[in-house]
C-alpha cells in the first residue's frame, strides 16, 4: 500500500508538471484582489473535495500550491504573520489571548499602523473586510482603537465570533449589531456582496477580504480574553439548515496516522490513549459537521464569481483562497484541533486564480503565510518592504518552473503556549507545555520534519517518497534497486516513527538520508533551525547564507557535503534547546540565539578570501 501511495503521489507530480506552459502574467494596470480566508480549513482531510464551486472556479481555473504552510498553527498569530509578512517571533503576537496574543497584543506592538491594509491604502487602493479579523477583537475594544486601513468593514466580534447562530458584526464606525438566530455565514455572504457592490461603485482598485469562521468549531464564550476567567464551551461546527443532512456516511479519512494502534509523536502527544469506538464515532460526526459548514462557504464562492462576471471584473481580479491554519481529527490519537507542527496542522490550502495565472496547475514549490503580504504587494505593483520575512510567490508557469530548482525549501514553524481539544473529549493537561520549534524541509530528494519541544525532546520524520527511484532503476536500468526499495519501505509520510525517539535507538544508527547518517543530518537541521528561530528579514528567506556567507550552500543537500562535516561538528556547536516551557516568546528561556555577526565576511571562517573548508 505504501508503494502504491508513493507511486500515485509521484505520478500526480509528473502529470502536473507536464501541463502546457501558460501565458506570462500580464494583468491590466491596477488589478483588484478578493481574498477568501477560511478558519481552520484542512488540506489533508479532503475538505476541498466536498466543495464543488471551489473546484470549478478556483482549482480548475487557477494554480494550487500544495506545499503551502502556516508558520504558527493557530488563528491569531498566523493571521498577524499573514498580514505583516513577519514570523511570530518578530511580531511578538504568539497566542490567541492576552498577554501574549489577540487584538490587544497586535495593537500594543504597533502593528495597527504597519500591516497590509494600511500599505494598500497608501498605494491608493480601497480596502474592504468582512468576517473574523483577530481573536479578542470584541464588543468592548473594537474602537480602542478601530482597526486601521479599511475603507469599509463588517467585523465579527467576540464573544460571538464563533457562535454560528448568534453572531455580532460591527460596521465602519458604527456600534456592533447582533444577529441572534441567523446563520453566520449567510449573514457574512450578504455583507460580502454589499462590500463588493460598494467597491465597484467607488470606481477605484480594491482589495476585499472575506473571512468566514467555517469550518471552525462552534464556541460559546462566557466572557472574552479580556476577562479574568472566561469560560469557553466547544462543540462541532453548526451547518446551515439546508446542509445539515449531507454526507451522512462520510468518515474522517482512515490514513495510517488516524488513531494508530501504537502511540506516536513526542512530549505529551506520545502519552495519548487510543480513542475508543464512541470517541471515533463522535469525531466522524465532527468531521461531517465541518464539511457541512463549508457548504455555505462554497455557495459564497460561487456567488462572488457570478457577481464578478456580471460586473465584467473577472479579467482584472485576482482571487486567492486559503485558511489561517490546518486541522487534525484523530491523527496521532489527537482530539479535533490544531496547534501541532504535524502536516495536518501546518500544510494548508492555497489556490490563486487571476489574469495570467496558470490554469488547472498544481505545484509543490514551498510557500508560507509570510509570503502572502509580499505576493500581494508585488501583484499590485507596490514596492516590497525590506523587513519582510517572506518573499513573493511565483505565479506564472515560467516562474514556477524556475522556482522548482531555485526557491527556498524550508518552512520555519514555531509555537508557544498550550493545546486544547475542540470536541467532546479533552486530553491530559500536560498539553499546557506545548511550546516547540520545528522545521519542514522539502527538496527534490528529501522531505523532512524536525522539531525541538520545550521539554527538549526531539522529533525527526523522514517523509521522503522514493518509490519512483526504485521503479526507474528496476525497470529502466535493470540493476539491483534493493536499497531504494528499502528506502521507500522506510518512508514515513504520516509521521508515525520518530527517528530520534529515546525508545528507538536502532533507527538512529541504521537510518540514513541521502546516504548520510542521522547524526550528521541532524547537525545540519539543528543549525538551520537555530538560524530560523532567531532570524529577521532576508535571513529568514535565505538562512543557509548565515551559515555559509559566500552563498555556496543553498539547500540541505549542499550542506550535507562531507567538506562541511568539520564545520558542523567542531564550529557550529550551539544547539536548539529551551530553558523552560514558557507560554509566550520570552528570550530568557528560549535558549541559544544565533549570532548573525559571527559569520559575516572577515570572521574566523573566512581567511584570505577563502571559506574555512579550503584552509582547515
UniProtKB/TrEMBL annotation:
The keyword Signal applies. Belongs to the sulfatase family. GO terms for molecular function: arylsulfatase activity; glycosaminoglycan binding; N-acetylglucosamine-6-sulfatase activity. Its EC number is 3.1.6.1. It comes from Talaromyces rugulosus. This is Arylsulfatase. It is an enzyme of class 3 (hydrolase). Keywords: Glycoprotein, Hydrolase, Signal. It holds the Pfam family Sulfatase. It catalyses: an aryl sulfate + H2O = a phenol + sulfate + H(+). The lineage of its organism: Eukaryota, Fungi, Dikarya, Ascomycota, Pezizomycotina.
Amino acid at each position: 500500500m505504501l508503494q502504491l501511495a508513493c507511486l500515485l503521489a509521484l505520478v500526480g507530480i509528473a502529470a502536473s508538471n507536464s501541463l502546457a506552459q501558460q501565458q506570462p502574467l500580464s494583468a491590466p494596470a491596477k488589478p483588484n484582489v478578493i481574498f477568501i480566508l477560511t478558519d481552520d480549513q484542512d488540506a489533508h482531510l479532503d475538505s476541498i473535495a466536498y466543495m464543488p464551486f471551489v473546484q470549478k472556479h478556483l482549482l480548475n481555473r487557477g494554480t494550487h500550491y500544495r506545499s503551502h504552510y502556516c508558520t504558527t498553527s493557530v488563528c491569531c498569530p498566523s493571521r498577524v504573520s499573514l498580514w505583516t509578512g513577519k514570523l511570530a517571533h518578530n511580531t511578538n503576537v504568539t497566542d490567541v489571548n492576552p498577554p501574549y496574543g489577540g487584538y490587544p497584543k497586535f495593537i500594543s506592538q504597533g502593528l495597527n499602523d504597519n500591516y497590509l491594509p494600511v500599505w494598500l491604502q497608501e498605494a491608493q487602493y480601497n480596502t474592504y473586510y468582512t468576517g473574523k479579523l483577530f481573536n479578542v477583537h470584541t464588543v468592548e475594544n473594537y474602537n480602542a482603537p478601530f482597526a486601521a486601513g479599511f475603507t469599509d468593514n463588517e467585523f465579527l466580534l467576540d464573544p460571538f465570533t464563533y457562535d454560528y447562530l448568534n453572531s455580532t458584526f460591527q460596521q465602519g464606525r458604527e456600534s456592533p449589531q447582533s444577529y441572534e438566530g441567523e446563520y453566520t455565514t449567510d449573514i457574512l455572504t450578504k455583507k460580502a456582496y454589499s462590500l463588493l457592490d460598494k467597491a465597484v461603485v467607488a470606481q477605484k482598485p480594491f482589495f476585499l477580504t472575506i473571512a468566514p469562521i467555517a469550518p471552525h468549531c462552534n464556541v460559546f464564550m462566557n466572557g472574552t480574553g479580556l476577562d479574568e476567567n472566561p469560560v469557553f464551551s466547544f462543540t462541532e461546527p453548526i451547518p446551515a439548515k439546508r446542509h445539515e443532512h449531507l454526507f451522512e456516511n462520510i468518515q474522517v479519512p482512515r490514513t495510517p496516522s488516524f488513531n494508530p494502534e501504537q502511540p506516536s509523536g513526542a512530549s505529551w502527544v506520545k502519552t495519548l490513549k487510543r480513542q475508543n469506538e464512541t470517541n471515533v464515532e463522535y469525531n466522524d460526526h465532527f468531521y461531517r459537521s465541518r464539511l457541512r459548514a463549508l457548504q455555505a462557504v462554497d455557495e459564497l464562492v460561487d456567488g462572488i464569481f457570478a457577481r464578478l462576471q456580471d460586473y465584467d471584473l473577472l479579467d482584472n481580479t485576482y482571487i486567492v483562497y486559503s485558511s489561517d491554519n490546518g486541522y487534525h481529527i484523530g491523527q496521532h490519537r489527537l482530539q479535533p484541533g490544531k496547534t501541532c507542527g504535524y502536516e495536518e496542522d501546518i500544510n494548508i490550502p492555497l489556490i490563486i486564480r487571476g489574469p495570467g495565472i496558470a490554469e488547472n496547475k498544481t505545484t509543490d514549490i514551498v510557500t508560507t503565510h509570510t509570503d502572502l503580504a509580499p505576493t500581494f504587494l508585488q501583484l499590485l505593483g507596490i514596492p516590497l518592504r525590506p523587513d519582510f520575512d517572506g518573499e513573493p510567490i511565483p505565479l506564472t508557469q515560467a516562474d514556477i518552473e524556475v522556482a522548482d530548482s531555485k526557491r527556498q525549501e524550508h518552512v520555519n514553524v514555531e509555537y508557544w503556549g498550550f493545546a486544547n481539544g475542540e470536541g467532546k473529549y479533552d486530553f491530559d493537561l500536560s498539553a499546557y507545555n506545548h511550546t516547540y520549534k520545528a522545521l519542514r524541509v522539502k527538496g527534490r530528494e528529501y522531505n523532512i520534519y524536525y522539531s525541538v519541544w520545550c521539554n527538549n525532546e526531539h522529533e525527526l520524520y523522514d517523509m521522503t517518497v522514493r518509490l519512483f527511484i526504485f521503479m526507474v532503476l528496476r525497470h529502466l536500468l535493470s540493476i539491483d534497486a534493493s536499497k531504494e526499495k528499502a528506502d521507500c519501505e522506510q518512508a514515513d509520510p504520516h509521521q508515525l516513527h520518530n527517528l530520534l525517539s529515546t525508545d528507538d535507538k536502532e533507527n538512529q544508527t541504521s537510518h540514513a538520508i541521502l546516504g548520510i547518517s542521522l547524526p550528521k543530518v541532524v547537525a545540519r537541521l539543528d543549525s538551520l533551525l537555530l538560524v530560523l528561530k532567531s532570524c529577521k528579514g532576508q535571513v529568514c528567506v535565505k538562512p543557509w547564507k548565515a551559515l555559509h556567507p559566500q552563498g555556496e550552500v543553498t539547500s540541505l543537500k549542499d550542506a550535507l557535503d562531507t567538506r562541511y562535516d568539520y564545520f558542523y561538528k567542531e564550529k557550529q556547536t550551539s544547539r536548539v534547546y529551551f530553558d523552560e516551557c514558557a507560554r509566550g516568546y520570552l528570550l530568557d528561556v528560549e535558549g541559544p540565539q544565533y549570532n548573525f555577526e559571527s559569520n559575516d565576511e572577515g570572521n574566523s571562517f573566512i581567511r584570505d578570501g577563502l571559506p574555512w573548508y579550503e584552509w582547515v
